[in-house]
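re: ur question from yesterday

yeah so i grabbed the chain u mentioned. its 171 aa long if i counted rite. heres the sequnce exactly as i have it in my notes:
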Amino acid sequence: MNGFSLGAYSSEVHVAIVRAKWFALLVALGWIAFPFVLASLLHPGDVINLHHVLQGEAKQKILTSQQMVVGFVEALITLGVLLLLQLVGIVLFYRHAQVQGARIATPAIWPLAVLLPGVIGNALWFVFTRQFDASGFVIGLAPMAITFFAERLCEQLGRDFVYGPRLAALH
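ran it thru and got these structure tokens back, copy pasting raw so excuse formatting
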């Protein structure tokens, strides 16, 4: 019987994180940044006001439609760059988490993407604001979907690239 063991999964994740070092941190930071960037698509005025704050000016209460379009496009470009960085980070994570000549410790990391921004982030939002936000809940779970599909992409299309030609035959 092939059952799931939480202890075995956590030890494989720990080994993979130790081997991948900075790439695990890169992926985790992407999980944390992704909901904020995704939420800025819904509120492009926040992007424009961020520009004002960074330039030392006061936030504007009224924004033109052109400024809103610019904020949306900037958020969309940022989201695309973040998605690319997440894909590269996940590929590098799996590439560095491998063990030569032994069972490869490459556990699925999408459950961690559910836990970190999805469960913990949404719980913190609920505790501090005392209200449930359905769109915020979905945005908090979005890193899990991105990580899940990036893992499937790594497993299906990039097996040789991720694991190298010697280890790709083992999977």
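noticed a couple things. The chain has a mean pLDDT of 78. also Residues 7-168 form one domain.
anyway ttyl
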